[in-house]
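Page 42, continued from yesterday. The earlier attempt failed because a stray header line got pasted into the input along with the sequence. Redoing it now with the clean sequence only.
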Amino acid sequence: QVQLVESGGGLVQAGGSLRLSCKASGFIFNSYTMGWYRQAPGKQRELVATITGGGSTNYADSVKGRFTISRDNAWNTVYLQMNSLKPEDTAVYYCKAQRYSTYWGQGTQVTVSS
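This time it went through. Structure tokens are written below.
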């Protein structure tokens, strides 16, 4: 049974930091590209960052220099370190695993107050 369980969301003031975690199980984690996506109210879900099994990363322009994606293949976990948060970063953040199949987590709310 595949599971992606996100944690670490919450309420933070602008300029603050949060670290999201996504614990995966039920598939061969180190062979999957992992990603973080977000969806704000009334908007489409959008890419935040991805990381391949080998550690290559890709970021949305809006988060470059502020967010860092990383993974620990020994613990089947992917992280998103978010610094210098802005109110426009407010969204539900979702973890995604993709290779032969695509799996999504349930999401975690991030709210940045001004």
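Notes: The chain has a mean pLDDT of 97.
Reminder to self: strip header lines before submitting.
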